[in-house]
TrEMBL record:
One of its GO terms (molecular function) is RNA binding. Residues 52-150 form the HD domain. The keyword RNA-binding applies. This is TGS domain-containing protein. Keywords: RNA-binding. The keyword Cell inner membrane does not apply. Residues 416-477 form the TGS domain. It comes from the Bacteria. GO terms for cellular component: plasma membrane. GO terms for biological process: guanosine tetraphosphate metabolic process. SMART domains: HDc, RelA_SpoT. Pfam families: HD_4, RelA_SpoT, TGS.
Length: 508
């Protein structure tokens, strides 16, 4: 996304033009918020010497480009007025209503705690997740705010650049990715990477440019060839595009492949976007009938979507001239969700509180531990139960305890994941290097407690087996079986560790 970081005059029309379905009422709300925010931030400037209003404008523009409705775009414009100007909550409510005030207060809670020391860091995370669980739109505004801040990070001190980039790589980019918002997470990763490790960033950038330059002529030629092949089969209503892997994603994959670029087949890829699921499979069959597929590289994320709802067919083929190419096939709806994730689930017209609240059911898939807090902007009261781990994040604790909690959160939520299956085909999402013991406790505490053995892909496997993407895991239980101390050396998830220690009566 373009950061728009220049002195060009900003207008409300720029935002409205980016809102595909804006009606008269929508335009009036956005224009009113635009004028209000511009006046409120008058005389304020950022480190870049630009008017502060430019930041809230660009945040709102990112939201408009994500397809958000007028309430969210207006919140983007107004998200800093309570914190950074003399405007009061009462004035916001009087001018824009309870809903927008509720969202602004949520974003403010997420954004204004300084990450100074571990105790503050865990407190920020606690507030982050509680506010997010109340309304998913709060998080989407916060991610847009963070994206523009990263786009203008060069104007801050070196210390702030490193701190904010670390936060972005550890929390914000993985969170955007886990919510399926790849269009945001990719930009966040690459921007943070450029500040955290500028030398490796430049090396990776140069390598990517060389590969892309080498591949592009071939991709364009192959694109024409594949369209011609599909047209012969009366598949003309398709569109194609080229995808270049993000720099940080490429850097991380190079590390996993011992720096061997020849082992990475998806630096560039061809996307084929069509109208129906049936056409996706038909196109796949035609491609495999025309070009030889690379064994073991076919992934059907349509029949078995990723836990973040990503759907697509992936195949890698030999192109016939010594080259290897990844092809991704999906419908228009799948493509929108692959780019926007949770944002695509919040339809443009969902400006009412109840509609947005329904999206929490979707978000709950990613934070199964959270028992959602239902806070009404009308009465400000919070109902529901906050789970122990959320309470712990905000409790007064020493640095050692805070560090342990933060490490648990990073392991359970932000690290690289593996997707394995139950015998019934349900997808179970686990941290990388998880074991059948982690799998068992994820299914149910009692299953973990009485685990006696495990089958992986139909064969008995040891309990310290490291599960891999696509494994089918079946747990064998016995009423007399109990956890052992050895399990603690094997498990990765904090849920499994806590339950094993509880069964063994081991205190932290």
């Amino acid at each position: 996304m373009d950061n728009g970081g220049n002195q060009k005059e900003k207008t409300a029309k720029d935002l409205i033009d980016a809102m595909e379905y804006a009606n008269t009422e929508d335009r009036q709300l956005v224009t009113k918020a635009f004028d209000f925010a511009k006046k409120a931030h008058e005389g304020q400037f950022r480190e870049s010497k630009e008017p502060y209003f430019f930041h809230v404008f660009e945040t709102a523009k990112i939201l408009a480009e994500l397809g958000m409705g007028p309430v969210v775009v207006a919140t983007g414009l107004l998200h800093d007025v309570i914190e950074d100007t003399a405007i009061t909550k009462e004035e916001i409510e009087a001018e824009f209503g309870k809903e927008i005030l509720f969202l602004i207060e949520g974003v403010t809670k997420l954004g204004k705690l300084k990450y100074r020391g571990l105790k503050r860091h865990t407190e920020s995370l606690r507030k982050f997740f509680i506010a997010t669980s109340q309304d998913i739109r709060v998080l989407i505004v916060r991610l847009a705010d963070r994206l523009h801040n990263m786009q203008t990070l060069k104007y801050l001190s070196k210390e702030k650049q490193i701190r904010k980039s670390s936060e972005t790589l550890e929390i914000f980019a993985p969170l955007a990715y886990r919510l399926g918002m790849r269009v945001i997470s990719k930009d966040l990763e690459d921007l943070a990477f450029s500040f955290i490790n500028p030398e490796k960033y430049k090396e990776t950038q140069l390598l990517a440019k060389q590969i892309t330059k080498r591949d592009m002529k071939f991709l364009e030629k192959f694109d024409r060839s594949i369209k011609k092949t599909l047209a012969k089969e009366k598949l003309r209503n398709i569109r194609t595009s080229f995808r270049v892997k993000g720099l940080y994603s490429l850097y991380k994959k190079l590390q996993r492949k011992d720096g061997d670029i020849e082992k990475i087949y998806d630096i560039t890829a061809l996307r084929i976007i069509t109208d129906s699921v049936g056409d996706c499979y038909k196109i796949l069959g035609i491609i495999h009938n025309t070009w030889k597929p690379l064994p073991g590289r076919l992934k059907d994320y349509i029949a078995l979507p990723k836990p973040n709802a990503y759907q697509s067919l992936h195949t890698t083929i030999f192109t016939g001239n010594g080259g290897i190419l990844e092809i991704q096939i999906r419908t228009n709806e799948m493509h929108e969700e692959a780019e926007l994730g949770v944002a695509s689930h919040i339809s443009y017209k969902e400006s009412n509180r109840g509609a947005a609240q329904s999206q929490l059911l979707w978000f709950k898939r990613f934070l199964p531990q959270i028992e959602y807090l239902k806070k009404s902007p009308e009465d400000g009261k919070t109902n529901g139960t906050t789970p122990d781990w959320v309470k712990k994040l905000g409790s007064e604790c020493d640095n050692e305890e805070g560090e342990k909690l933060f490490d648990e959160l990073k392991t359970d939520f932000f690290e690289h994941r593996v997707f394995v299956f139950t015998p019934n085909g349900d997808v179970i999402d686990l941290p990388i290097n998880s074991s059948p013991i982690d799998f068992a406790y994820t299914i149910h505490t009692d299953i973990g407690k009485h685990l006696s053995g495990a089958k992986v892909n139909g064969k008995m496997a040891s309990l310290d087996t490291k599960l891999r993407d696509g494994d089918i895991v079946e747990i064998v239980t016995n009423k007399s079986s109990k956890p052992t101390r050895k399990w603690l050396d094997v498990v990765k998830t904090s849920e499994a560790k806590r339950n094993i220690k509880s069964a063994l009566k081991i205190k932290d």
